[in-house]
Amino acid sequence: MGATLRAVRALVLLAGFYLLGVVLLALLAGIDWLLYRYAPASVAVKLYIVSALLAIPVVRGLFMLRTPKDEEMAGLPVTEADEPELWRTVRELADRVGTRAPARIVLTADVNAAVSEDARLLGLLPGPRRLYLGVPLMLGLTQAQLRSVLAHELGHYANSDTRLAVLTVRGRAQVLRTIAHFEERADNTAARERARQEKKNAKAEARGKETQEVDEGRAGITYRAMAKIYIAYAKLYFRATLSVSRRQEYAADTAAARIAGRDATASALREIPVLDAAFGFYMGGYATLGSEAGLLPPRGEVFGGFGRMLTARQLELATLRTELATEPSSPYDSHPPIADRVHRIESLPADGRAEEAQGAALALLAAPERTLAALEDTVLTDEVRRFSRAGDWPELLAGAMAAGLASLNTPLHRALAFYTKDAPTLPALLKLIEDGQLWQLARRLPLSDQASAAEGRAFREFVRPALHDSLSSMALAELSARALLSWEFSWERAAVPHLPPAPDGTPTDLDAAVGAAVADIPDTAPLRALLTHHI
Amino acid sequence: MIIIWVVLALVGLPLLALGLYFLKAIVQGAVEGWREGSEESTEYELPAEAAALGLLPPERQNKDSSAPLPAGLAAAITAAKAGDWQPTAALFDETVAARAWERRTSACERLADVAAEDDAWLLAWETARPDDPGAALVRARSTVFLAWNIRGGKRAKYTTGEQFEGFHRVLARSREEHARAAALAPEGDPSPYVGEIWTALGLGYPHAEMDRLWKEITDRAPHHYEAHFSALQYWCKKWRGSEQLARDFAARAAAQAPLGSLMTAFPLIAHFEHDESDSADADRTPEVRALVDAALADAAAADPSHPRLPEVRHLLAYYLCLQDRDEAALEQFRLVDGYVGALPWRYKGDPAGEFCRLRDLSVANVVAASG
């Protein structure tokens, strides 16, 4: 298919989207007219309102002729004066790719690099370009790899036939956005319905009546039906344009390999999914560790710590790199599976550039430390920025753990509160175990069907893991409250609690003590001893 | 006006279709219910010839056992269920004195099953006699049963992660408990190792580990029936081995054993475990007839009080019946009638029904031949 034909198809598909909107509106208007003519006024008025509500997202879809001036993603815009080396690199790459360099560079806080263009008149007239560059990406890539990623992104603008690809991209975005509007409305309607029913239930409960299951089933169903029509169109659209977008990705990869070197391009492709997964893990396990306790890592470390973690976990990452996704990440993803792309690049002839630019990509920044700190100011919300800063990572860990243990609420806490109608404390639990009521208490834990059907020994085995975990946490909380617990911080492993040794100097075995307390014949003596040793 | 009709048709037709669909479902349900009801009326009726021989209908067949339990064992089970461990302890001590390992493992299997449900009596026994080898043995085996109770009998697809996790956690404990039972066992007692085969089967011990276990057993008791039965299960295709490994194991056991040891049952069991054909042709070959002949001679020469002899008789009755040797089959059926807790019936959905069906076929053929 020639470039012209592809362009025509892109135009037809986009036109089809607008046609769909017009037809739907005509249909709604037609129904309204029928109602006006033949239905009693009381019914008609109600249905007018419904059709008007349904029309809103359709109209919105129609009039979003241009992609909204995309809100610039949250990030740190850097001028040429700020980052001369980065700008020079980007300019040089754009030049070698054979396209215009971006007018703005914005540093972001994700594992991503993207070039966007505010094209005008359906993408027929060029507009200013913006490069989004994730600092976490720079923390994980070498300079050669980063050059390859940037060359790929710029490469999308180099192929002359991709001017009209903007049309395709626009169409995709348009259809997806309209679907999103409908679903958002459906969700809102469902949420309102849910709130209404829950309120009703709360009233019924207050009066001591049986409450009904909350059912949001029907609410929002009309919106979802409309969304389905658009989803059907979207599927057609994506199928028709997929091969083109895939070809564009391969072409951009080839351009990247030519400019940045074959090996750097292949290894960057392998690296990005790994960095993405690692960054998710880092944000959950390290950066936001203190969020419950209102604690932030030291200044510059919110994203800077990612680099430390990557260094410490090299071995783990090496194994991840060898596993490539062979499936596209979603059926709507325009990118071919990573495995395909890597194989295509790796089958190119060797270019002898494997040793080029092995330095860290972060070195392209004039003052990485300062940039990491400034990035925090732009991407963290005001609320988060008001958190207090920990002096260092171990302090952050200790603070987070102490706060977490102080507000501990395990399933066992809830079961105990329910069973005793009293505050769920460790002394109360130990007393109850000593009174031989542990297994009756365990019946109040959240149980699977199999566990609640089990009796005697089998039941005890089903609940033992939950009892063990909860009781361990309660014991740790007790020690933590008495400031007897220390935590070992590590970039490589999960945090480890350290208990003070027993008075005779032997290491404390919390697991064994807890195990005895939840044994078939529970014995709380070791756990009591462990707790009282340290008063 | 025509518009109204169009709208009405648009609304009405789907409703009508829905109504018809429900009507169809109701009629189908009613028909099925009626059919089921009519099936119930064709209930099993004990043929007069079988009744004349004193044979029992399915509802009077005991599904939990292959034969009446020895009085001592039955009493021990009753006492254990009532919380009294003393008779069990006495029984286990007695098997050591008599060096009756076959009875020891058989009693262990029964009492461990009781302890897997409720082990209060076992705990009392352990407290009273901390290093009792019998208690250690029952403890380990009961943990194996407990693991299976947690896992449930359903296929992997219908078993939850929680069940599998519990199964492996508990079964791993049974390994340590078997090691302890082996350390406490009286000299020459293979029982802890026999029990450990079921741990091996569940945890998937490597073959090398199984062979090590097997040497411990055969050094102590070369022709122990339950050991061979358990190990054969391990070597079966459905567990940790293959058809070839299972058949070789069974053939070796039968070839080396003296007459009366009942080891000739295992080639038949290996055949039974791996026979996937739908017809009885595979059970009528000269080879299988020869296996049955060997097992018949073995059973005839065995000690009549061998605790596993009834199991072999059940198997013989089944194959003799399939081979149209009804006279011989009936002889075995009569010896075990009243109990169906054995292979091959145990594997069937309705063990008692299947037992009675084949037994009655043999009875009818014998009567027809003589009449």
From TrEMBL, chain A:
Gene3D superfamilies: Metalloproteases ('zincins'), catalytic domain. It is a multi-pass membrane protein. One of its GO terms (biological process) is proteolysis. Keywords: Cell membrane, Hydrolase, Membrane, Metal-binding, Metalloprotease, Protease, Transmembrane, Transmembrane helix, Zinc. Residues 188-211 are annotated as: Disordered. InterPro entries: HtpX_protease, Peptidase_M48. Its cofactor is Zn(2+). GO terms for molecular function: metal ion binding; metalloendopeptidase activity. Residues 81-347 form the Peptidase M48 domain. GO terms for cellular component: plasma membrane. The chain crosses the membrane at residues 12-31, 43-63. It holds the Pfam family Peptidase_M48. It is found in: Cell membrane. This is Peptidase. It comes from Streptomyces dysideae.
